[in-house]
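Hi V.,

You were right to ask for the full record rather than a summary. Here it is.
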Amino acid sequence: MLSDPTDFRGGVAVITGAGSGIGAGLVTYAAGLGMRVALADVNVDAIGRRGAEMDAKGVETIVRRVDVSVPEDLEALAEEVYSTWGTVTILVNNAGVELHGNTWELPVEMWQRIISINLSGVFYGIRAFVPRMIKQPGRAHVVNIASVAALRINPGTSAYAATKHGTLALTECLAAELVPVSDKVIVTAVLPGAVRTKIFENAMLADTDGVGARGNRQGIEVLASTGIDPVKAAEIIFRGAGRGELRVHTHPELSRASIEERAKALSF
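Predicted structure:
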C-alpha cells in the first residue's frame, strides 16, 4: 500500500465500458474530481450521451468507440489520449459481458466473444498503455475490473468465471512484473459484488429455459434488490487504487466468505 496515496484530482482517467454500469459511475466520479476523462465503449450512443453530459458540466473529454476485443482500437485510444493530454493518471479496464449456460452447451462464438472482451480486452489495454505509463513522469494506475466471481465457482458461469479468475491472475502477475521495472505504475484488481448495472439484462445466454436463463434471472433480481449504486462502487475503486491496494473489494464480507469457501475446497 502506498505511503503517499494518489490524489487523482485534475488528472486524466481512461475508462473502457464507460457508457453504462460501473463504467458510467467511474466517469461521474472522475469528473467530480476535476479529471479529464476519456470515455471508451463499443456502444456509441451510450458514450455519446455520457460525453454530452460531461461536456455540459465543463469536463474535458475524449469520446471514442472502442471495441476492447480489437487491440488496434486500444492502441489508437492510447495514442490519442497521450497526444492530446500527454499523460494518464488512471486506466480502468472495465468493459465486460456476462455469459450463462452449461459449459458443454455454450456456443463457440459466445465463448470466444466473452474471452476476447473480458480477458483479452484487459491484456490489450495493458499492452497499449503500460509502456507509455512507464515512460511518463509521475505516478500512473492500472485498474482491472475482475469480480467476486474470481473467488468462487457457480454452475452455469464457467466462461465468465474463467475470464474473471484470469483477470485477477493477470493483474497480480503484472504487479509483480512491474516491481523491478517501475515504482510509478501501480496495479489494482477490483472484485465487485452486487452493483446496480444492466450486466445481466445484456448477458449472452446459451439457453432460453435452462441453467443459463435461470441464473440470469436470479442475477437480475439480486442486483435490483441488493446492488450498490455504481457511483458508490466507483468511489470505493478510486480510493482503493489511490492507496495502492492490489485488490479492492466493494463487498468485503462477501469476498471474505468466498475466499474461505474456496480455501476450504482447495485444501487437502
